[in-house]
Amino acid sequence: MFGIGMPELLVVLVIILIIFGAGKLPEIGGAIGKGIKNFKKATNESDEIDVTNNTKKIEPK
Question: Which residues contact 28 (CB under 8 A, 6 or more apart)?
């Protein structure tokens, strides 16, 4: 996998743990997961644009 073995992966994970701390890792993982989910949702949606006019006219008094 791109020349990354288990030792290199462990070094990267330890560096991430040192930089962000153990408390922030779940938040970072959740944010990345939500981002991926939104990206997949956006790519699967149709490209149609809703052009219906739902604005209400406000009459002057």
Answer: 20
**Distance, CA of 44 to CA of 38 (rounded, Å):** 10
Which pLDDT score is estimated for 35? 93
* pLDDT on residue 34: 94
Radius of gyration of the chain (CA): 23
Say how far apart CA 11 and CA 6 lie, in whole Å: 9
Measured distance CA(51)–CA(39) in Å, rounded: 23
Instruction: Please give the torsion angle defined by the CA atoms of residues 45, 46, 52 and 53, in that order, rounded to the nearest 10 degrees.
Output: 50
- Local structure of 56: helix, strand or coil: coil
Can you list the residues of the chain whose pLDDT is less than 50?
none
25 in Cβ contact with 17 (< 8 Å): yes
